[in-house]
Amino acid sequence: MNKEVNKEPHQGAKACSPGYHRSQAAKGVIRLRESNLWKPTNYGHSRILDVIRKLSGNKRPNLLNNPTDYLVVREDWDDNSVINKHETSVYTDASVTKTGTGIGIYSEALNIQKSYRLKNGCRAIQAEICAIGEAVRLIRASGKPLGNVIIYSDSQAALKSIASKSVRSKVVMSCQEALSWIRGDGVGLRWVPGHRNVVGNTGADGLAKLGARESGAEVIDSPLPPISSLKDAIEKITLEKQKEIWQNRNDCGIARNLWPKIDNSRTGQLLKHKKNLVRIAAGVITGNCAVGVNLQKWKITNDNYCRECNEEEETIEHLLCRCPAIVNRRFQIMGQEFLDGLEDAAEMEINKIMNFARNWKCFRSEVVKKG
Ligand SMILES: [Zn+2]
User: Fold this and answer.
1) Which one-letter DSSP state was computed for residue 312?
2) Cα of 260 to ligand 1 centre, how many Å?
């Protein structure tokens, strides 16, 4: 401010005039924008470019120039002041559902109401970008003069991707290519908030849903899914295969009873414990531990009777579910005096089984030879 006051009187007066500093700041912003040093957002001082656009009375964005051109603020939609009656509006939307992926393009002025179904599954943002690309093709095909056409999308992420200068995605490149055909023809992009009952947006939304649902909708090649979703798909297929193998095995009886299905969260709970406890739990779950039946098999003991109650064979199932000598411990830890079978234990938190198993004789480091 001091710097401004020290200037010539007329300059000082100018500096004190309303909006001067704002305009200086705005010019600074424009310089920064041109040198790609300005990071536009939709809040705070960064919104200054929106103000400039309003001052100039020109809301029509330059195609692919800068996100601030098309990411109009939500407030502008309060009174629909964004929509200019001299412009031709084309709305796009995408819908990703369990039954499929659809895109919709809607324009009352150009008489476009188009639903497409995308061939391969892809992410919502890819479908949104794809919809914009298709809109461009339809606008060109309409044969109408292209002045003042605005393509609206409710996906800020899609618009930002399209405006991005470093692009590796084929979908974005394809959309950018389509846009480049009409560059300079007065076609622009603009954001419209979804679910605000903006007629065109609602229309495009309905068409996209139709494309996702109807098997009759025209099918077009969709962008290939991104690497991350391919990885997800591979993991899913692998897991299904593992499940199938596990369920169809004839061996590993105890393990398949106590761990009937591949369960990542249960595995996570197990692996939280110290290595020694995990070893104990793995012994119980697989049946490969020093229970009576194994001790006899390994010729360490002469009989396989339960060392707690001496009534039955000492098996994992006996100890876990039925041994009468450890009823109290079972009740305290598992909340039940007896279990019906290993299937009951399979439904329990793995921590309970681990706590219960910790004190069994079969896990003591020394094995007491019987008889
Ligand atoms: Zn017993």
Assistant:
1) S
2) 25
